[in-house]
Design a protein that fits this description.
- The chain has a domain at about 85-245.
- The longest helix has 23 residues, at about 1-25.
- It is an alpha+beta fold and about 260 residues long.
- Helix 2 crosses helix 3 (about 155-170).
- A hairpin with a 2-residue loop joins strand 1 and strand 2 (about 90-95).
- The chain has helices at about 1-25, 95-110, 155-170, 200-210, 240-245, and strands at about 85-90, 90-95, 120, 140-145, 170-175, 190-195.
- The protein starts with a helix and ends in a 12-residue tail after the last helix.
- The strands form 2 sheets. The chain has a 4-stranded antiparallel β-sheet with strand order 3-4-6-5, with helices on both faces.
- The chain has 5 helices and 6 strands.
Length: about 260
Amino acid sequence: MKKFAWVALFLLIPILLSGCGQQSSAPTVSGPMPSFTAEPLPTSTQLTPTQTLSPSPTVMTVTNTPTITPTAEPDGCLKPSENYERISITGHQLNQRTYDMLAYAAQLYGGVIDITGSAITQGSYTRAVEASFGTHAGGGAVDLSVMAPGTFTILEEDIEPLIHALRLAGFAAWYRNFNVLYEGSPVHIHAIAIGDRELSLAAREQLAGPHGYFWGYDGLPKDAGNPTRDPHGGPIVCHWMVEKGYPNKTATPSP
Protein backbone atom coordinates (compact mmCIF):
# COMPACT_ATOMS: atom_id res chain seq x y z
CA MET A 1 0.00 0.00 0.00
CA LYS A 2 2.78 2.42 0.93
CA LYS A 3 4.55 1.51 -2.27
CA PHE A 4 1.49 2.45 -4.29
CA ALA A 5 1.24 5.89 -2.58
CA TRP A 6 4.79 6.84 -3.43
CA VAL A 7 4.28 5.78 -7.07
CA ALA A 8 1.17 7.93 -7.32
CA LEU A 9 2.92 10.99 -5.83
CA PHE A 10 5.80 10.52 -8.24
CA LEU A 11 3.41 10.52 -11.21
CA LEU A 12 1.50 13.58 -9.96
CA ILE A 13 4.51 15.99 -9.57
CA PRO A 14 5.10 16.53 -13.34
CA ILE A 15 1.44 17.35 -13.85
CA LEU A 16 1.51 19.97 -11.07
CA LEU A 17 4.69 21.57 -12.39
CA SER A 18 3.20 21.81 -15.86
CA GLY A 19 0.15 23.69 -14.59
CA CYS A 20 2.22 26.18 -12.62
CA GLY A 21 4.35 26.99 -15.69
CA GLN A 22 1.29 27.82 -17.75
CA GLN A 23 -0.16 30.18 -15.14
CA SER A 24 3.11 32.17 -14.80
CA SER A 25 3.42 32.84 -18.59
CA ALA A 26 2.42 36.40 -19.75
CA PRO A 27 -0.70 36.47 -21.92
CA THR A 28 -0.17 37.03 -25.61
CA VAL A 29 -1.63 40.38 -26.81
CA SER A 30 -2.50 40.61 -30.48
CA GLY A 31 -3.01 43.90 -32.46
CA PRO A 32 -1.20 47.29 -32.42
CA MET A 33 0.12 48.84 -29.21
CA PRO A 34 -2.07 51.67 -27.83
CA SER A 35 -0.63 55.24 -28.13
CA PHE A 36 -0.60 57.83 -25.34
CA THR A 37 -0.69 61.70 -25.76
CA ALA A 38 0.98 63.75 -22.99
CA GLU A 39 -1.24 66.65 -21.95
CA PRO A 40 0.51 70.03 -21.23
CA LEU A 41 0.86 71.11 -17.62
CA PRO A 42 -1.57 73.78 -16.46
CA THR A 43 -0.34 77.30 -17.09
CA SER A 44 -0.07 78.00 -13.40
CA THR A 45 2.42 75.22 -13.01
CA GLN A 46 4.62 75.89 -16.06
CA LEU A 47 8.23 76.45 -15.18
CA THR A 48 10.05 79.70 -16.11
CA PRO A 49 13.79 80.17 -16.45
CA THR A 50 15.52 80.96 -13.21
CA GLN A 51 16.46 84.67 -12.97
CA THR A 52 19.58 85.78 -11.18
CA LEU A 53 18.88 89.01 -9.32
CA SER A 54 21.69 91.44 -8.63
CA PRO A 55 21.59 92.84 -5.13
CA SER A 56 20.08 96.33 -4.99
CA PRO A 57 22.68 99.00 -4.32
CA THR A 58 22.57 100.48 -0.84
CA VAL A 59 21.47 104.11 -1.01
CA MET A 60 23.00 106.24 1.74
CA THR A 61 21.49 109.60 2.54
CA VAL A 62 24.08 111.93 4.00
CA THR A 63 22.87 114.99 5.85
CA ASN A 64 25.52 117.67 5.88
CA THR A 65 25.38 119.78 9.00
CA PRO A 66 27.10 123.04 8.28
CA THR A 67 30.03 123.75 10.54
CA ILE A 68 29.81 127.29 11.70
CA THR A 69 33.16 128.79 12.48
CA PRO A 70 32.87 132.16 14.19
CA THR A 71 34.90 134.95 12.65
CA ALA A 72 38.11 135.35 14.57
CA GLU A 73 37.79 138.19 17.04
CA PRO A 74 40.48 140.86 16.83
CA ASP A 75 42.95 140.83 19.69
CA GLY A 76 42.07 143.48 22.24
CA CYS A 77 38.28 143.33 22.06
CA LEU A 78 36.71 143.83 25.49
CA LYS A 79 33.00 143.97 26.25
CA PRO A 80 32.24 147.25 28.04
CA SER A 81 30.29 147.67 31.25
CA GLU A 82 26.62 148.66 31.34
CA ASN A 83 27.08 151.41 33.93
CA TYR A 84 25.18 154.52 32.80
CA GLU A 85 25.83 156.67 35.82
CA ARG A 86 26.63 160.19 34.65
CA ILE A 87 29.95 161.75 35.53
CA SER A 88 31.76 165.01 34.70
CA ILE A 89 35.30 165.03 33.26
CA THR A 90 36.97 168.45 32.91
CA GLY A 91 33.52 170.02 32.67
CA HIS A 92 32.20 167.56 30.05
CA GLN A 93 29.42 165.14 30.88
CA LEU A 94 29.77 161.44 30.06
CA ASN A 95 28.28 158.23 31.38
CA GLN A 96 30.49 155.77 33.23
CA ARG A 97 30.30 153.25 30.40
CA THR A 98 31.79 155.74 27.93
CA TYR A 99 34.51 156.75 30.36
CA ASP A 100 35.45 153.12 31.03
CA MET A 101 35.77 152.57 27.29
CA LEU A 102 38.01 155.64 26.99
CA ALA A 103 40.19 154.37 29.83
CA TYR A 104 40.60 151.01 28.09
CA ALA A 105 41.40 152.72 24.78
CA ALA A 106 44.04 154.85 26.56
CA GLN A 107 45.64 151.67 27.85
CA LEU A 108 45.74 150.17 24.35
CA TYR A 109 47.01 153.40 22.81
CA GLY A 110 49.75 154.22 25.34
CA GLY A 111 50.51 157.61 23.77
CA VAL A 112 50.70 161.17 25.04
CA ILE A 113 47.16 162.30 24.17
CA ASP A 114 45.15 162.34 27.41
CA ILE A 115 41.84 160.93 26.15
CA THR A 116 40.41 160.47 29.64
CA GLY A 117 41.09 164.06 30.65
CA SER A 118 42.41 167.18 28.96
CA ALA A 119 41.97 165.93 25.37
CA ILE A 120 38.16 165.78 25.74
CA THR A 121 36.72 168.79 23.90
CA GLN A 122 33.04 167.79 23.78
CA GLY A 123 31.16 165.22 25.78
CA SER A 124 27.66 163.72 25.75
CA TYR A 125 24.15 164.94 26.59
CA THR A 126 24.76 168.31 24.94
CA ARG A 127 23.62 170.36 21.96
CA ALA A 128 26.22 173.07 22.51
CA VAL A 129 27.81 172.50 19.09
CA GLU A 130 25.14 172.80 16.42
CA ALA A 131 27.48 171.43 13.73
CA SER A 132 27.48 168.07 15.50
CA PHE A 133 23.90 167.66 14.09
CA GLY A 134 22.63 166.00 17.25
CA THR A 135 25.20 163.19 17.62
CA HIS A 136 26.19 164.47 21.09
CA ALA A 137 22.61 164.98 22.31
CA GLY A 138 22.50 161.56 23.97
CA GLY A 139 25.05 159.30 25.64
CA GLY A 140 28.17 157.67 24.22
CA ALA A 141 29.51 160.59 22.14
CA VAL A 142 32.87 162.29 22.69
CA ASP A 143 35.30 164.51 20.74
CA LEU A 144 39.04 164.32 21.39
CA SER A 145 41.83 166.75 20.56
CA VAL A 146 44.82 165.37 18.64
CA MET A 147 47.12 168.28 19.38
CA ALA A 148 50.15 168.12 21.61
CA PRO A 149 49.23 169.46 25.06
CA GLY A 150 49.53 173.25 25.27
CA THR A 151 50.33 173.63 21.55
CA PHE A 152 48.66 173.72 18.16
CA THR A 153 50.83 170.93 16.82
CA ILE A 154 48.84 168.02 15.40
CA LEU A 155 50.26 164.70 16.53
CA GLU A 156 49.78 163.13 13.12
CA GLU A 157 51.68 159.93 13.92
CA ASP A 158 49.35 159.30 16.86
CA ILE A 159 46.10 159.57 14.92
CA GLU A 160 45.91 156.09 13.40
CA PRO A 161 47.13 154.24 16.53
CA LEU A 162 44.59 156.14 18.62
CA ILE A 163 41.77 155.48 16.14
CA HIS A 164 42.62 151.78 16.22
CA ALA A 165 42.68 151.70 20.03
CA LEU A 166 39.32 153.48 20.25
CA ARG A 167 37.76 151.04 17.80
CA LEU A 168 39.07 148.03 19.70
CA ALA A 169 37.61 149.53 22.87
CA GLY A 170 34.19 149.70 21.20
CA PHE A 171 33.95 153.13 19.57
CA ALA A 172 33.15 154.07 16.02
CA ALA A 173 35.88 156.68 15.67
CA TRP A 174 37.02 158.94 12.82
CA TYR A 175 39.53 161.72 12.38
CA ARG A 176 37.93 165.05 11.41
CA ASN A 177 40.30 167.45 9.67
CA PHE A 178 40.05 171.23 9.58
CA ASN A 179 36.89 172.72 8.07
CA VAL A 180 35.12 169.37 7.66
CA LEU A 181 32.04 170.25 9.72
CA TYR A 182 31.98 173.98 9.09
CA GLU A 183 34.33 176.77 8.11
CA GLY A 184 37.01 176.89 10.77
CA SER A 185 36.03 173.64 12.53
CA PRO A 186 39.03 172.24 14.45
CA VAL A 187 40.83 168.96 13.91
CA HIS A 188 39.67 166.26 16.32
CA ILE A 189 38.65 162.61 16.66
CA HIS A 190 34.92 162.04 16.82
CA ALA A 191 33.87 158.84 18.65
CA ILE A 192 30.53 157.11 19.26
CA ALA A 193 30.29 154.33 21.86
CA ILE A 194 28.78 151.29 20.12
CA GLY A 195 25.79 149.75 21.88
CA ASP A 196 25.20 152.66 24.27
CA ARG A 197 21.50 152.47 25.14
CA GLU A 198 21.30 156.27 25.46
CA LEU A 199 22.64 157.19 22.01
CA SER A 200 20.80 159.90 20.11
CA LEU A 201 19.14 158.95 16.84
CA ALA A 202 21.79 160.87 14.91
CA ALA A 203 24.54 158.94 16.71
CA ARG A 204 22.89 155.63 15.89
CA GLU A 205 22.71 156.69 12.26
CA GLN A 206 26.47 157.12 12.37
CA LEU A 207 26.77 153.49 13.42
CA ALA A 208 24.27 151.63 11.25
CA GLY A 209 22.68 154.19 8.95
CA PRO A 210 23.36 154.45 5.20
CA HIS A 211 26.53 156.48 5.85
CA GLY A 212 27.45 154.54 8.98
CA TYR A 213 30.54 152.96 10.48
CA PHE A 214 29.42 149.34 10.11
CA TRP A 215 28.92 149.78 6.36
CA GLY A 216 32.42 151.18 5.89
CA TYR A 217 31.65 154.90 5.69
CA ASP A 218 32.82 158.01 7.53
CA GLY A 219 29.58 158.65 9.42
CA LEU A 220 28.94 162.07 7.88
CA PRO A 221 25.48 162.45 6.37
CA LYS A 222 25.28 163.63 2.78
CA ASP A 223 22.56 165.85 1.42
CA ALA A 224 23.28 164.46 -2.02
CA GLY A 225 25.62 161.95 -3.56
CA ASN A 226 27.23 158.83 -2.18
CA PRO A 227 28.63 158.61 1.36
CA THR A 228 32.39 158.83 1.81
CA ARG A 229 34.36 155.67 2.45
CA ASP A 230 35.92 155.20 5.88
CA PRO A 231 39.49 156.54 5.62
CA HIS A 232 40.63 154.22 8.45
CA GLY A 233 40.00 150.87 6.79
CA GLY A 234 36.51 149.89 7.95
CA PRO A 235 34.98 148.70 11.21
CA ILE A 236 36.43 146.49 13.90
CA VAL A 237 33.70 144.01 14.84
CA CYS A 238 33.94 142.32 18.24
CA HIS A 239 31.71 139.43 19.33
CA TRP A 240 29.86 141.53 21.89
CA MET A 241 28.85 143.95 19.11
CA VAL A 242 27.33 141.06 17.15
CA GLU A 243 25.45 140.00 20.30
CA LYS A 244 23.93 143.48 20.41
CA GLY A 245 22.69 143.16 16.82
CA TYR A 246 25.43 144.88 14.85
CA PRO A 247 26.24 145.30 12.04
CA ASN A 248 22.59 144.76 10.98
CA LYS A 249 21.10 146.87 13.74
CA THR A 250 19.06 149.67 12.22
CA ALA A 251 18.95 153.20 13.53
CA THR A 252 15.55 153.50 15.18
CA PRO A 253 14.21 155.99 17.73
CA SER A 254 14.51 155.15 21.40
CA PRO A 255 11.36 153.54 22.85
